[in-house]
Description:
Elements: H1 2-7, H2 12-35, H3 47-77, H4 83-90, H5 92-111, H6 115-143, H7 149-176, H8 181-191, H9 199-202, E1 207-210, E2 215-218, E3 246-249, E4 252-255, H10 261-266
Antiparallel strand pairs: 1-2, 3-4
Amino acid sequence: MFSALVRAGHYESGLTARYECARAEHVRVGARIEECRSAGFFASLSVASGGAEDEILAQMARLAHAYTAIMAARDLFAFAPGWRDVWDNEIGPIIEDLDVLDDVADTLEAIGTDPNILTDIEAFREHVGDDKDTVINLGERLEGRQLGPAQALEELDRIANEARARTAELIEATLATDSSSQGRARYARWKEAGISLTAANAEYDGAYWSEDADTDVEYNSAATIRLIANSAGVDFEGLPAPATGVLTAGRASIYLLPMYLDRYLTCDVDAAVPR
């Protein structure tokens, strides 16, 4: 199925990256299971073995979600029944992204003093709002067959990349205006990507607030077609937190929830312990 989708030219680079990460995870899980087949392992009631079993089960669950994502891609590209549910799940991460960037704007506004920076923050907020409208509109354009699913996925990538780039530029400009010793230290930490990634600050929650529905909207963050922090085979724990909110592995772009960006702005450098 995967090969057929790629041969048809459907979001080729994104799907290939998703598949290769899942395949690598499959190999790791198989090796982990072999390690745990030592005599008496599964009969052991030790805490250590129980932890290993939980880890394997979690990895297997992510692999199952990766398979779900490939099936979802098939349905979306064919506009099969249920494709709209697939799309609604697909926009979850980028809505979370934009909500986080809105919060970053709040922090920037709280610490920024330069009038030009404050003006830029207002323009940034408008961009975030426009991006949310564009994401919602993509679903309507898909409904009207005004663009294809692959184009829509590429548009999500474009929005995510450009929003992150604007955020990084604004953060750097804001930090550069703080001439205090702590401000200079924060700027240096930013330039050196001095905060580490963790599941707590980079994985998606799988839920976002909908003003229209006046409630939280849940989605399956492990089963998106686009490659994100929650996808099977993605290992980022302890890596430097990039200013872009995107990890690059070969030709693959892995989208992170940029929750950690706020820490670059507010946490004292001496206290910048990964969270």
